[in-house]
Amino acid sequence: MPRSHVSTGSTPIRLPVRTCVGCKEKAPTADLLRVVVSRSGGEPQSFDCIVVPDAEHRLPGRGAWLHLDRTCLHNAERRRAFGRALRVPGAIDISAVDAFVERRVLPDEKNRQQH
Ligand SMILES: [Zn+2]
Description:
The protein has 3 helices and 6 strands; from the N terminus they run βββββααβα.
């Protein structure tokens, strides 16, 4: 019974996979939106942190991953999943991510209605 290799079917391309903070499902990073914390260095505001979309995966720092889906966004918001994933306590402003998701989601819905 010597088995040097455990083969579970050949998948030559291994895509990086992350977990969506909204629905907790794993998905390729290409299907997810990366979000990062952008701390406002200025005056204290009503929010401790601002979370911004990082569509090009270039911003430094700890990121969280989310489907471009309003349901996932709202689930993440309700469960305070952003705070946990990004390790930030306190109130988080996700309006920038919200706006980004709205912009990305709406064209799809328009297309669906045309068909
Ligand atoms: Zn999701």
